[in-house]
Amino acid sequence: MPTRVNPSQVATVISDPKSVDLAITSRFSARAFLPNPVDRSLIEEILQVATRAPSGVNTQPWKVYVLQGAARDRLVARVCAAHDLVYRDPERAKDFPRDYDYYPLQWPPVYLERRRENGWGLYGLLGIGKGDKDKMHQQHQKNYRFFGAPVGLICTVDRALAAGSLVDYGMFLQCIMIAARARGLHTCPQAAWNDFAPLVREEVGATDQESLVCGVSLGYLDPHDPVNTFDAGRVDAQSFTVWRDS
Ligand SMILES: Cc1cc2nc3c(=O)[nH]c(=O)nc-3n(C[C@H](O)[C@H](O)[C@H](O)COP(=O)(O)O)c2cc1C
After folding, report:
1. First to last CA, the chain
2. How confident is the model at residue 4 (pLDDT cuts 50, 70, 90)?
């Protein structure tokens, strides 16, 4: 597999850095998509570009199931049914153990605050109040419909690998999302699928050796759905940057 570095990789000058920046800064988590299909060639291009993501000792630990059409719809139907079941009987959640903890069990205050801001910001925008459990459930379930996107990616990694491979995977995922932006597409990375990992694995035909990393919705965003006006915001770089010059 190793070859020589392509001379263009060395010589390439990014003549329009703004386009690169724009592909990054215009990415956000879209939560409503149009049903318009996405050309397979575009999806192939995006995944091919993303292969250039770095990974420790070039492990390239990613595996992606691209779900469209009936395969997508079957997964959606099964997981939505399971999600309803768990809503009615929370005890059933234990039938679907996650492959890894994406979130901490105990949240340090600063992150808990950001999590709350994010959740209530989104629900507030949609007019969903704190006690409105049914509406919250319905909104959450849109995750399991890929927010209406015609393409769903299910991302897995070999269980035998270590935490570093999740670092690699994050870079790969970001490459996918940026390459999607460069082609007029939007995405939403989704840890929500992890809550039904065994079901997802079975439905997509993944083996037990594969650990579910996350799902990704991919498609053309619905510009008229208010959910897509939600901006999660960010703290400035200076708030987390420590300069040591001497
Ligand atoms: C790995 C990963 C998993 C995520 N899982 C979900 C999810 O299940 N559902 C969802 O609506 N958003 C999910 N998000 C989106 C985050 O909420 C979002 O990235 C964050 O609030 C920042 O907003 P932005 O992506 O719009 O800039 C996930 C993001 C990442 C990186």
Report:
1. 43
2. confident
